[in-house]
Write a structure and sequence with these properties.
The protein is 61% helix and 4% strand. It has 48 helices and 7 strands. The longest helix is centred in the middle third of the chain and has 19 residues, at 420-438.
Length: 949
């Protein structure tokens, strides 16, 4: 409901506690009022927005009313809206409330913004605009409205706003700083988790203490008997609304002593009962009108005569006189408190509520989602037409990124289904959403039980998909989940919908990839081929990539890149997650970082545990390859907390693996090894054979880090027992391909290493991504000699942008430097090894940094010179000094190191005094002299630097 408070002369009707004490006299709220003044006047540069958090009845609405009074006193325009439980599933219902008075200004917006608002708010037709476009349109409209008169937007009960409106208003609230727009809102802090969005100034309102409660009661009820006052203070527990309202039911003349006052109900129930008693005295016609307003929630039902009738004004006057509502000059309506609205609905009989919902569904301005819910609430029994509408609304809610609304709509659609088979399918659909997106496994189990009870065809695909998801996520029962799904997909005589097939094939791909064996890959690929014409492009790419990334076609990669590009505006978390898993197999997660972060944040707010955990798993993989290993461990820890709390055991192993892999790269050997045995013990009985391969990958990396190449070779070959085979290469085989080559070379298995590289070439893994192109060329460098090896290493370094894959780049630089040292190209060797050391130090990859320092020592550079001490050169200064000593100009050095010539000059300016020289000509001798210093690495032979080979 919404109302725009007009700027009129004289006293205005105030709601709640404001009426009792006046703008500056809200008992116990002086600090809150000071903060509100600071926001409205922008005196403290608070960004123009403020959110008040507090329990029901604590006085949040009273402070909003006080803020509206203050705004009007400052000559500002006010807009109001309030969230409502009854329309929380209707997208943009709250935004409709707030912006309704500004409809005449739509025409002054640019066409895109005008169209976006009209479609979103139900005034026009067309494709649903992006959330970003709607948000910028709403902001533009408010700024336009404030052009001639500053404006304050007041939003009560944000916790009941629909998610779409809450997102848009949060977007606006973070961007009104420095404008003529202010935003004030309240959030109830009991019940559901707080819908906090973004950084907005906030204040949690406390309950009044006993002395403040006494002062409020004395101000409002000076004649109240002391024993009644004490009892009210005790029972109200500092809740201002209870303090104001309870005296009406505990009058002193009715309860002459303390002993005669009855035991009261808990606070919320007691207040609801009191509101109901007040509303019940109204005439039936007035109650009917209030019920329409409460269920509609927009405050604008008066404009539709077919809904309200000719006597609306009379009944509104009665309700306003009874202090139940407030009506402004635009005939917009605000209930004085959300509990009043709740009481109106609770007081109505079921048939009255159904009649009101039917009337509202017939209103011409009702959008399809709102109309579907009104028709559902108006239904007395099963209704296939309404069930179909709600099923469609469920799909739309999922596309809008509102999975909880999707599950609610699909479940209600099932309730309304007259046909048992349809009802079972819809219950199974709700179960699938709950499993794949929400992560509410308890609800999944109950929904499936209900679906099976109704379903004569136990093997229906919808039920099978949900059942397989439950088996997979709750206990990782790979074999049973696979059997259930393949049986349903092959069942004769069934005609599943395309949506059901898509869901089943997706779950089957997850099962097959967890098993990782040909026995499941082949049936999966056969079923993909059977339903190929009904599958979207994304699932076809998934089937091509997940079974063997090395064989992915360039066309599939181009299509995937196009699909990734569309995710910047995608709202459906499931779609982002599905594309993310395909991208992970072919090194494209870096392009999904922002969408995945959005899923993590939005899904955490909506309680979609499965989406949150999937996003965290993919963010683990992305941050590892990007070298942000602290992020990897942080994402893994949060994911583990969620997965273990909600029973998602199938996610736990990957999160442990991600944390262990980052630990191995950091050189934290014990932390890397800690979870691995438990992962093996968990996975083998479940035939989740991909898990041991991840264990072997961690152990391979850890062994290379500590220089144990024999162990590294043994562990890597467990992933690829027959080496690298072009026809059967899985993702993990490719991920350890470079490790396998390095371990083979280091252990004298040169011929095996050449065979591995030959297999990588035949598979043409370079086509997959720049990372694998870099690693393939690096592997070729490892097995080559002389100039050919240098050419391969140079090609490897040129294959990928320098900002991508830093750990792999550092390893190749180190290998290149080692090769150059063996070739006695000492200066060039130092350059490559120093560059590798710079990367490893930044990543905190301790084992590899130590190897780089040892290699630099072998070139004659002291350990002191490889650090960043006050007396020595930094690694970058050493690089620049070495290149300058070789005769390169500042410009040439800058081009090689991607620095400006001015930056190179600045570094040399610092280098000269450190080396005790005054000119460039002294660089070569000064660098050579470093080898004679006393702090040369212990045991390192001293040899003069040379540019020779």
């Amino acid at each position: 409901m919404s109302a725009e408070h007009v700027d009129a002369e004289g006293p205005d009707v105030k709601t709640g506690l404001t009426e009792l004490t006046g703008l500056t006299g809200l008992t116990g709220r002086s600090s809150e009022l000071d903060l509100i003044r600071a926001v409205i006047d922008d005196t403290a540069r608070l960004g123009g927005s403020l959110t008040l958090f507090g329990d029901p009845g604590v006085g949040k609405s009273a402070l909003l009313d006080a803020a509206a009074d203050l705004a009007r006193a400052r000559g500002m325009r006010t807009l109001r809206a309030a969230g409502a439980q009854f329309e929380a599933n209707i997208a943009f219902a709250g935004l409709n409330q707030l912006l309704m008075p500004l409809v005449p200004l739509f025409a002054e917006l640019d066409p895109d913004h005008e169209s976006a608002l009209r479609v979103a708010l139900g005034f026009g037709e067309g494709a649903t605009p992006s959330r970003l476009l709607i948000s910028t349109a709403a902001l533009s409209l408010l700024l336009l409205a404030a052009r001639e008169q500053p404006l304050v937007a007041v939003i009560d009960d944000v916790q009941w706003l629909d998610d779409a409106s809450a997102d848009v208003l949060s977007f606006v609230a973070r961007r009104v700083a420095g404008t003529r727009v202010r935003m004030l809102s309240t959030v109830r802090t009991t019940g559901e988790p707080l819908p906090v969005r973004g950084d907005v100034n906030s204040l949690t309102m406390r309950s009044l203490d006993d002395s403040e409660s006494e002062a409020l009661l004395l101000a409002r009820y000076p004649d109240l008997a002391e024993h009644v006052r004490r009892r009210i203070v005790a029972e109200a527990q500092g809740n201002p609304l209870a303090l104001v309202e309870l005296p009406a039911t505990l009058a002193s003349d009715r309860y002459p002593t303390a002993d005669t006052i009855p035991t009261v109900l808990p606070l919320t129930e007691r207040l609801t009962r009191m509101f109901t008693a007040r509303i019940a005295t109204l005439a039936p016609e007035t109650l009917d009108l209030l019920l329409l307003l409460a269920l509609d929630g927009s405050g604008q039902a008066l404009s539709a005569e077919s809904v309200v009738g000719p006597d609306a004004a009379t009944h509104l006057e009665i309700a306003e006189h009874e202090r139940i509502i407030v009506v402004d000059s635009r005939n917009s309506v605000v209930f004085r408190h959300p509990l009043v609205r709740s009481a109106v609905v609770e007081l109505a009989r079921p048939e009255q509520r159904r009649r009101a919902h039917r009337a509202l569904a017939g209103c011409r301005r009702a959008d399809p989602g709102r109309r579907a819910w009104h028709l559902a609430d108006a239904s007395f029994g099963p209704d296939e037409e309404v069930a179909t509408l709600l099923q469609h609304e469920s799909i739309q809610a999922l596309k809008r990124g509102d999975p909880s609304a999707a599950v609610a709509a699909m479940t209600r659609s099932a309730d309304l289904s007259p046909d048992p088979e349809h009802r079972s399918q819809r219950l199974a659909g709700a179960a699938y959403f709950a499993a794949e997106v929400m992560g509410d496994l308890q609800s999944v189990s109950q929904l499936l039980t209900d679906a099976r009870r109704l379903d004569a065809n136990v093997g229906s695909l919808a039920t099978a998909s949900a059942a397989a998801s439950l088996m997979l996520y709750s206990d990782a029962d790979v074999v049973s989940a696979f059997r259930v799904l393949t049986t349903a997909l092959r069942a004769p005589g069934t005609e599943p919908t395309a949506e059901e097939i898509n869901a089943a094939i997706w779950v089957l791909s997850v099962i097959a990839s967890l098993n990782g064996r040909k026995e499941m890959w082949d049936p999966y690929l056969e079923l993909v081929d059977r339903y190929r014409d009904l599958l979207p492009e994304g699932l076809l790419i998934r089937s091509e990539v997940v079974s063997n990334p090395a064989l992915v076609s360039p066309e599939a990669l181009r299509t995937l890149d196009q699909e990734i590009a569309t995710l910047t505006t995608e709202l459906d978390p499931g779609q982002i997650i599905r594309v993310g898993y395909v991208a992970n197999d072919v090194d494209r997660l870096a392009d999904l970082r922002e969408p995945l972060l959005r899923v993590w944040q939005d899904a955490a707010r909506t309680g979609a545990v499965a989406s949150v955990t999937n996003a965290l798993m993919l963010l683990c993989a992305e941050s590892y390859l990007a070298g942000r290993w602290d992020d990897t461990q942080r994402f893994a820890e949060e994911g583990l907390e969620r997965a273990e709390s909600y029973g998602y055991v199938n996610f736990v192993w990957f999160l442990h693996y991600s944390r262990a892999l980052a630990a191995a790269a950091l050189g934290q050997q014990e932390e890397a090894e800690e979870p691995l045995e438990a992962m093996l013990a968990w996975s083998i009985p479940r035939q989740a054979f991909i898990v041991p391969q991840h264990v072997y990958r961690v152990r391979t990396l850890a062994a290379i880090g500590r220089g144990d190449f024999e162990t590294a070779y043994t562990e890597a070959t467990k992933i690829s027992p027959r080496g690298l085979e072009p026809g059967t290469a899985r993702q993990l085989q490719l991920f350890v391909a470079y490790d396998l080559v390095e371990a083979a070379v280091r252990t004298g298995r040169t011929e095996e290493a050449r065979g591995f590289v030959d297999a990588m070439l035949r598979m043409n893994i370079a086509k997959i991504s720049s990372r694998w192109a870099m690693l393939l060329a690096g592997a070729q460098g490892l097995i080559s000699e002389g100039e050919l090896a240098s050419a391969h290493f140079e090609r490897a370094l040129a294959a990928a942008p320098e900002n991508l894959w830093p750990f792999e780049r550092g390893r190749i630089l180190l290998a290149y430097g080692e090769h150059l040292r063996r070739e006695r190209a000492t200066v060039e060797s130092r350059i490559r090894i120093t560059a590798a050391l710079t990367i490893f130090d930044r990543l905190r990859a301790a084992p590899w940094a130590e190897r780089a320092r040892t290699e630099l020592g072998a070139t004659g550079i002291s350990r002191r010179q490889t650090g960043s001490t006050n007396s020595g050169l930094t690694p970058q200064e050493l690089q620049i000094a070495t290149l300058a000593a070789s005769g390169l100009t500042n410009k040439a050095i800058g081009e090689r190191l991607h620095l400006s010539a001015r930056t190179v000059s600045g570094h040399l300016y610092n280098v000269f005094p450190k080396l005790g020289i005054t000119a460039r000509a002294g660089l070569r001798d000064a660098l050579t002299a470093l080898t004679t210093q006393e702090d040369v690495l212990p045991g390192t032979p001293v040899r003069r630097a040379t540019d020779g080979r």
